[in-house]
Design a protein that fits this description.
Layout (H helix, E strand, L loop, with lengths): L2 H33 L2 E5 L17 H14 L5 E3 L5 E3 L1 H13 L6 E6 L8 H13 L6 H13 L16 H9 L3 H8 L3 H8 L5 H19 L9 H28 L1
Parallel strand pairs: 2-4
Antiparallel strand pairs: 1-4, 2-3
Helix pairs in contact: 1-4, 2-3, 2-6, 5-6, 9-10
Length: about 260
């Protein structure tokens, strides 16, 4: 290996080691977020993030949707703060909670938080790692959990609207998406009824009389077709079909007789 090849190999090894360390740091930060004990603290004591900006700034629509969801479901994921109560992760949740507290101070006076044991001002790199880790390690709700949350929102008056919701209508999909972090298309797929469930909802129940009538029509058609075929020309499998049809016809006759007897 010449000098250039050695230099290139050394550079590649350094890049790979740095990438591995970055992944490890991210995982450790995520573990720290989820390992912190959850406690309750006054909402008024939760301070803004050091510097005042997030890696992702929430939109007004996101704030409104999440506020509606939290109002109906409660705060499912606690805020993450440093040891002094400065926000580390959950800017949209915090702003949504403040909007709710302005309308109902008593209900939202205290909120659940996960407190990290460091000072965000003196350890900004650790604070950023926690924020990024929380964004990337957001809980992935299962389809069952999504459907359960949707039912809770429906019970609270939220409606699944096809287009833009009318003024005053609490739209289900934006509120649900704000909580679980899934797109409208994904939510529609998760909430769509299974094919068999959709059939069960639309198909009317089949009564004994309906079944008898359908079987009778099927047997008449079978008889009309079979009348043109000689028994000697049938294969063994076709003979079994004819025998089954005859047995079915006999059973149908007994069922109709029993039904008439029950009516009397």
């Amino acid at each position: 290996m010449n000098r250039h090849d050695k230099a290139r190999a050394g550079m590649l090894a350094g890049i790979q080691a740095g990438h591995a360390q970055a992944l490890l740091d991210k995982r450790l930060a995520a573990d720290a977020v989820h390992a912190g004990d959850v406690s309750v603290m006054p909402l008024a004591d939760v301070l803004d993030r050091v510097g005042g900006r997030d890696t992702r700034e929430p939109s007004l629509e996101a704030l409104e949707a999440l506020a509606e969801s939290i109002d109906a479901l409660g705060l499912l994921e606690p805020l993450v703060v440093d040891r002094l109560g400065r926000l580390l992760a959950g800017k949209t949740r915090l702003l949504s909670l403040r909007r709710l507290a302005a309308q109902d101070p008593g209900r939202w006076a205290k909120v659940p938080v996960r407190r990290m044991d460091f000072d965000a001002e003196t350890e900004p790199a650790q604070a950023l790692a926690v924020e990024v880790a929380e964004n990337e390690q957001r809980r992935d709700y299962t389809s069952t959990e999504v459907r359960a949350l949707a039912e809770r929102l429906k019970a609270a008056g939220f409606q699944a609207t096809a287009g833009r919701p009318r003024t005053g209508t609490k739209a289900l999909l934006p509120a649900l998406g704000a909580v679980v972090g899934k797109s409208k298309r994904t939510l529609l797929r998760i909430l769509a009824p299974a094919p068999e469930e959709a059939t069960a909802r639309t198909a009317p129940p089949v009564t004994l009389a309906d079944a008898c009538a359908r079987l009778r029509r099927a047997l008449v058609s079978f008889e009309r077709i079979a009348s043109d075929v000689a028994l000697v020309d049938l294969t063994p499998a076709q003979h079994r079909v004819v025998a089954d049809a005859a047995a079915l016809c006999e059973r149908l006759t007994h069922l109709e007789a029993e039904r008439e007897t029950d009516k009397r």
